[in-house]
Amino acid sequence: MTDTIRRTFFTAGLMLNLIGFGTALSASNAYAATVFLVCDGNFKTITGISDTRTRSEGTRASLGSSYYDGTNTMGQEAFTIAAALDKTIPVEDEFKGAFYLSIDGSNGVFSRVKLQPFERDVRLPSLDLQPEESMENGIMRSVNIVASEDELLLSARSESGGLVEALVEGRPMTPTREIVKDMSLSLNRFNGRLEIEWKDHEVRDYKPVGAIRSTKKRYSDVKRFDAMCKTMQERLF
């Protein structure tokens, strides 16, 4: 009974704080507001994904645990940790963590999301994300924040390095920057469910079995965070 009452109060509080951005802040005397959340959950990492597509019929490709290199269907390959262990499958890991979030909004528009991550109780560098489109020192960055009545969505990307043609998701000779980093965040505004995903892509030289010369292929590391959030007031003292 106590847990039910707590969940009811949390849901009501979260709705009042987050939905209030799109209602109370739209009034004539609207003001900037910040919501503070703490989110406890689990991280999952997958290191060394080379591709997830396989050849089926003709030129059609489908999802699977192998990729088509233009000649043969081959199993997934790994790099970094997996390569050091001489394994041919990506290395996976799961561990607990937390995020502190502050979300700024005014007149129904979300203008900033600050994140302070903790992995295994270790404080990591914080993130301060605001909508932007920029190009500086050869690095292209973009951040987009949108919201509906149900959820808050954030997407961020950075691209650097030269433009090359590589095997990407089963497609040979695909133009891509050498290093691409993607981040996506979704926060349910009713139950406090938070999901974050990071994808770090890097183009590396790859020599297929029996080939005379090497080609380029994109490898990826993926990290996911799945958590439930509470308003910060419930966590203090």
Features:
237 residues; mainly beta; eleven-stranded antiparallel sheet; two-stranded antiparallel ribbon; 2 helices; 60% strand; disordered N terminus
Task: Explain how this protein is built.
The protein has two helices and 15 strands. Strands 1, 6, 7, 8, 9, 10, 11, 12, 13, 14 and 15 form an eleven-stranded antiparallel beta sheet that branches. A two-stranded antiparallel sheet has the order 2-3. Strands 4-5 form a two-stranded antiparallel sheet. A hairpin with an 8-residue loop joins strand 14 (193-206) and strand 15 (215-231). The protein has 237 residues and is mainly beta.
Could you outline the blueprint of secondary structure elements for this entry?
Layout: H1 2-18, E1 33-49, E2 53-55, E3 61-63, E4 66-68, E5 73-75, H2 81-84, E6 91-106, E7 109-119, E8 122-123, E9 127-129, E10 132-136, E11 139-147, E12 151-168, E13 171-188, E14 193-206, E15 215-231
Estimated structural class: mainly beta
What's the pLDDT, averaged over the residues? 75
Element string (H = helix, E = strand): HEEEEEHEEEEEEEEEE
* Count of individual helical segments: 2
What share of residues is helical?
Answer: under 10%
**Percent of residues in beta strands:** over 45%
Radius of gyration: 22 Å
* Major sheet attributes: 11 strands, antiparallel
Could you name the ranges where pLDDT drops below 50 across 5 or more consecutive residues?
Answer: 1-30, 52-88
Which of globular, elongated, flat, extended, rod-shaped describes the shape? Answer: globular
For the terminal residues, how far apart are their CA atoms?
A: 23 Å
Would you report the number of β strands?
A: 15
